Amino acid sequence: MTDNHGSDCHHKERKRPAGLAKNEKLVWDVLVAATEPLKAYEILDKLKELGVRAPMTVYRALDGLEEKGHIHKMDGLNAFVLCNHEGPHVVQTFLVCDKCSTVQELDVVAVEADIAPAVNAASFDMHTARLEIKGNCITCAAA
Ligand SMILES: [Zn+2]
Ligand SMILES: [Zn+2]
Fold this sequence. Notes:
Number of domains: 1
CATH topology: Arc Repressor Mutant, subunit A
Number of strands: 5
Strand order of the largest sheet: 4-3-5
Mean pLDDT: 88
Helix content: 25-40%
Order of helices and strands: HHHEEEEHEH
Distance between the termini: 25 Å
Structural class: alpha+beta
Number of helices: 5
Bound molecules: zinc ion
CATH architecture: Orthogonal Bundle
Radius of gyration: 16 Å
Low-confidence stretches: 1-11
């Protein structure tokens, strides 16, 4: 059985994590409603009607959320997505659709299991390992 259709139903009921600052809550709310990764200025745009006008406010909130492990920055897209996981994790794996720009975070235990020993063997203090897998999502591939 490789059928996995049940898994795309659970992300709609995301509960906002505890311990967020006021602006972090606002940014989190924007990202949870988004269907694709958002750039900082797009987040700022959506928060203008709530009285947030300073880009620095958004950048600080994004930094805070990233530090707490609630969001990831997609370097290739220069945009942000919510994290699917319970807490901060070092190895992050994403499927990025070239056509519609949707991003899906994967839980690939093997990636972490293979990367961590190699990094340790090099005596390197790893902060983040991010793998962006480019291609087409199931909708775009079928189109
Ligand atoms: Zn994550
Ligand atoms: Zn797509």
